[in-house]
Structure formats: structure tokens, C-alpha cells
Amino acid sequence: MEPPEPTQPANASNDSLISSPSADDESAESLAYQISLALILSLITLATTLSNAFVIATISQSKKLQTPANFLIASLAVTDLLVSILVMPICVLYTVIHTWTLGQIVCDIWLSSDITCCTASILHLCVIALDRYWAITDAVEYSKKRTPARAAGMVATAWVIAVSISLPPLFWRQVKAEELTSCSVNTDHIFYTIYSTFGAFYIPTLLLIVLYGRIYVEARKRILKQSPKKVGKRLTSAHLVTNSPGSVASTTSLQYGRHDTPSDTGSSTSDNQVKVTVSDALLEKKRISAARERKATKTLGIILGAYIVCWLPFFIYTLLVATCETCLNHDLFDFFTWLGYLNSLINPIIYTMSNEDFKKAFQKLVRFRCGRW
């Protein structure tokens, strides 16, 4: 008598039939996630490219904006533009598929471009802060030294430091015989990790905090100094600048609102009124200057805050992974990486939207382009 047929194969077949739709659903969900992720990251990359390109075009087209200070902002925009062109598009592909398919040479070029451009972008923020600090604390002397050549020297220094941080990994990068499936900086060299993170982020961040702190204190002093403290200051100023015989009558008229001044002092009264108007204009100019100082101080705070929020998680995690290999989470690392790249999109938005001259020049450029089309 033959033994009964085992029922396991049938069950296995049923299980496979049941699990097959589930596997298809997971595959479809994974594909939808990859497409959505690729679309979002591509939009961020495109927005970064366009925003920085518009900053460069705006400065190049407007002679009013072609100053040494704005030259530094244009250089920052060029650096962030390089990030969006050389680094971010390849990172979109690598982040979505999690497998490196472009070979060893492209990997080396991409990593070097990534470290160089991102470090140069961070150092540009230091250069801009340093320029702003000197302009506020030593306005008279620095105005003589604030030349395009000096700005170019500061930019060149930033790039030299950035290159010096990106080059070392190329010397110990070994070409593998098998196919390369991942592309990342080797964290086995702990001393390089410390050198690169401190040189590219921690030291520049400390410098930025010190500079922006000093700038804030100086700006607050100017605001308090420029704010009128007494209501009668305008009338006192008018009385002091008046030398005519009708000054007494004019001052009385101003203080008490009387208009029955003697007729023979009419011309003197008119002169006094003109001088009071000039005094009002000076006070209004001080108010505008104080408002600009407040806005500039607020802008600096936004710049520093955005920079720290974007880059601090990445550099903390980089140090953590160098000391704890099991702490590496690829998805978390990708998120922190793109959060850092996002700073290249935020920079042009902050610098241009906080400057009225930039806004006007940008609107003029857009109208000009639209008119040509």
C-alpha cells in the first residue's frame, strides 16, 4: 500500500500563491517610494541651481550691486551652484538606488567635489561674516581696504583651505579589482575625520558665532545711539542752528504753536522752518539707518541659525560613525547629507530676500527676460 501523498507541497504552493501578491505590492510600494524620492530631490537640486544662477545673473546685470561685499555673495552663489551641478545630481541617483554604478574614477571625482564645494560654501559664510564685521567695527579704515582685489584674496583663501581638506582621501584610496558598489569617504582614518570635520565645520562655526555675536553687539550699540531719546531734541537743534534776530520768536512759535510772529521777522521765521525741516530729515535718516541695522542683525541671525540647523546633524553623525561602526544608518546618513545640501538653496534666498536692492534688481531682470520671450 502506497503511503498517502504529503500535504506540505500543496500548502507550500498555497503559501507561495498567497505571498506572491504581497511581494508584488511591496515591490510596487518600493518603486513608488523611489520615484517620489527622486522627484523631490530633483526639485531641490533644480531649485538650488536656478536660485543661485539668478543671484549671479542679478549681480552681473546690475552695476549698483557690483560692490566688494556683493562680490562675496556672488562667489558664494557660484560655490552653491557648483554643489547643485557637480554633487547633487549624482547624489540623487545614489540616494535612490543605494548602489554605486558609475565606477571608481567618477566616485573619486564626486567625493572630492562634494567635500571641496560644501567646505568652500561654509567658508564663504565665514568670509562674508568677517567682511561684515570689519565694515561695522572699523568702517572708516576698512572702507579704504574694501576692494575687489581684497575680496578675491579672501575667496581664494577659502578655496585653498577647502581643497586642502578634500585632497587627503585620494592618497589612500585603493582601486578595487571587483566592481564598486558603494562610494563613501573611508572613516577608518579617524585622524582625517577629525581634521576634516573640524576644518570644514567646527572651527568655522565657532568663528561665525564669535563674529555674529560681535556684529550683533555693535549693531545694537548703533541702534541705541541713533534712536532719539528726548522729544524736544528737534526743537533744541533748531534753536542751536539759528543765528538770526528772529530766532526767539521762531522758537516760541514752534514750542507753543503760535503763529502771531512779527511781520519784520517773517523771513527769519521762514529760515528757521527750513532748518527744522532739515533737522527732521536728519532724524528720519537716522531712523531709516537704525531700521536697516535691525534688519541686518535679524538677517545675520537667520543665516547663522539656518547654517547650524542644516550642517550640525551631518557633522555630529560623521564623527559618531567614525568611532562607532554599528551606529551607521544609511537612511539617516542620507537625510543628514541632503539637509546639508539644503543650505545651498537657503543661502541665496536669505541673502537676496533680505536686501531691497537685490529684490528690485531681481524683479527688473525677470521683467527683462519675460519681455524678450
Automatic annotation (TrEMBL):
Cellular component terms per the entry's GO annotation = plasma membrane; synapse
Q: Where does the G-protein coupled receptors family 1 profile domain start and stop, copy by copy? A: 51-351
**TM helices/strands, residue ranges:** 31-59, 71-97, 109-130, 151-172, 192-217, 300-323, 335-354
Its BP terms in the Gene Ontology are: adenylate cyclase-activating adrenergic receptor signaling pathway; bone remodeling; chemical synaptic transmission; positive regulation of MAPK cascade; regulation of behavior; vasoconstriction
Stored InterPro entries: 5HT1B_rcpt, 5HT_rcpt, GPCR_Rhodpsn, GPCR_Rhodpsn_7TM
- Oligomeric and partner information: Homodimer. Heterodimer with HTR1D.
| Protein's recorded name | 5-hydroxytryptamine receptor 1B
List the taxonomic lineage.
Eukaryota, Metazoa, Chordata, Craniata, Vertebrata
